[in-house]
Specification:
This protein is mostly helical and 488 residues long. It has 20 helices and two strands. Strands 1-2 form a two-stranded parallel ribbon. The protein is globular and about 65 Å long. The N terminus is likely disordered.
Length: 488
């Protein structure tokens, strides 16, 4: 049944002249192609076509969804949403005289929607307080509850929070809620074989991520996480199995969170880490808690929240203090150094780096966690390079990034591309246009093997800064290869 509205008719559409002027002499189809290309540069996925462009210019889309907003900010970083002719989201999502969010026609959203089948994007309840543990993953949204481009993200979150009835209320539907879900099947007996399956899934994800990056893995890993929480929440097991299953599910949540981070889904990553932290505290597992804090600190730094990065790194060090792993403490000290660097505190950053190196030099131990297989001299140099880069010390940053590239083991292809992208950024920082372009070309050569939105975003930033210097042969060659790779 179609949704009905209260609070009066929807305001008449006002043509969006700002977006029409930005299109200039391009046809709607050509303009849509540019939008899709810009989306790929930052790892976003939008299905922009001539029809969507027409709806924007006609004023039918008063505020684009979050995916399109990110793309438009990438295309025109100097312009606000209002400069682009759009209304604020809070004005679009409220009906006159009502606090409930208004919805557009029930047409398929132009942005990405959760998939179905074995590669389904993980859908879940929001993370709970550690005292109650992580919520069970929710089922896929009912397709009858999809809205247009203006409201798809809001309605998806509404569904995840409250289910079909909440969506019906948000849309103002004059029909009763959908029937209750069918009875749950009989509880499944969970034993060592199922726990080993969860633990192996974590290992497989890490190996594939090291080689190929996150983008191709996120959906499949999310399905594995969903299955793990089904076992944990609905299974029948003894106390020993419960502890292993909690730890396995927590590690899997961290892995999926990292894949979200590397895919530039930073808010999703934060949610997954919250789930993992809740699981770690329920299981009273200091190893898992330290791992969560390490990843959370890295995420906060990349998201531009240095204070949060510091708190997470220091909390991780407290959790890891009695675990007997100097390498783990070294990594957490590096995370702390990254937070200090973002804050511009050179002294504190240097002290944290010195502590990280001193701990690292004590060598590996049997107590080192399995997930730290990536942490060697290359990662140490790469993380230090990022600190100097944040502090604007480009010579030091370039030297350490170059060492990171040369020290990286061949099978860590994703990290090799990451360090090379960092080196291109640092060379550009010190004014070496040809050197930056040469390193950028090296990253382009790896894009066929690595799918990481984070790395593509770094490379896109370097390309944007080099476009005004195409007279330099190395720059021209890099831009040509980069544009071809993006268009492919």
């Amino acid at each position: 049944m179609a949704a009905t509205r209260s609070g009066g008719p929807r305001p008449a559409a006002v043509p969006n002249q700002a977006m029409r002027e930005l299109r200039g002499d391009l046809s709607p189809r050509e303009f849509a192609t540019l939008v899709r290309r810009a989306a790929r540069e930052i790892g976003e996925h939008v299905s922009c076509d001539a029809r969507y462009v027409g709806r924007v210019e006609a004023g039918e889309i008063r505020c684009p969804n979050y995916a399109y907003q990110r793309v438009f900010r990438h295309m025109w970083p100097e312009k606000s949403l209002a400069d682009l002719g759009f209304a604020a989201r809070k004005t679009v999502l409220r009906r006159p005289g009502s606090a409930a969010p208004a919805a557009g026609p029930a047409t398929p959203a132009a942005g990405p929607t959760p998939a179905t089948g074995p590669a389904a994007r993980p859908t879940r309840q929001p993370p709970t307080d550690p005292a109650s543990g992580p919520a069970s993953p929710a089922g896929p949204p009912d397709p009858t509850h999809r809205s247009d481009e203006e409201n798809d993200d809001v309605l998806r979150r509404t569904f995840l929070n409250g289910g079909p009835a909440a969506v019906a209320a948000a849309l103002g539907m004059d029909r009763p809620p959908l029937p209750a879900a069918p009875p749950q099947p009989e509880r499944r007996r969970v034993g060592a074989a199922e726990v080993r399956g969860v633990e192996q899934a974590v290992r497989d994800i890490r190996l594939l991520d090291d080689a190929h990056g996150a983008d191709a893995l996120f959906e499949l890993a999310g399905q594995s996480l969903r299955s793990a929480y089904v076992l944990l929440n609905d299974g029948d097991y003894n106390a020993a199995t419960e502890r292993r299953l909690q730890c396995g599910a927590g590690e899997l949540a961290i892995s999926v969170g990292w894949l979200a981070h590397d895919s530039n889904r930073l808010m999703d990553a934060r949610s997954f880490y919250s789930e993992a932290l809740a699981t770690a505290r329920m299981a009273q597992d200091a190893h898992l808690e330290a791992h969560v804090f390490s990843n959370s600190a890295f995420l906060a730094r990349d998201a531009g929240r240095p204070r949060e990065a510091l708190r997470a790194a220091q909390a991780g060090q407290a959790a890891a203090a009695g675990l007997g792993s100097d390498r783990l403490l070294s990594l957490l000290s590096l995370r702390e150094a990254g937070g200090w660097a973002l804050l511009g505190d050179r002294g504190a950053c240097r002290r944290a780096l010195a502590r990280a190196y001193a701990l690292f030099d004590r060598g590996p131990r049997d107590a080192d966690p399995e997930w730290m297989s990536f942490f060697g001299e290359a990662e140490l140099a790469g993380q230090e390079a990022q600190c100097w880069s944040a502090l604007g010390e480009w010579e030091r940053a370039s030297t350490r990034a170059e060492q990171a590239v040369s020290l990286q083991r061949p099978h860590f292809v994703r990290n090799r591309a990451l360090y090379t992208a960092e080196l291109a950024h640092d060379r550009l920082g010190r004014g070496d246009l040809a050197g930056a372009a040469a390193q950028g070309s090296a990253v382009v050569a790896l894009l066929g093997q690595v799918r990481s939105a984070r790395i593509r975003g770094m490379l896109a930033h370097t390309a944007d800064r080099l476009r005004g210097h195409a007279a330099v042969p190395e720059v021209r060659e890099f831009l040509s290869g980069y544009d071809d790779a993006v268009a492919a």
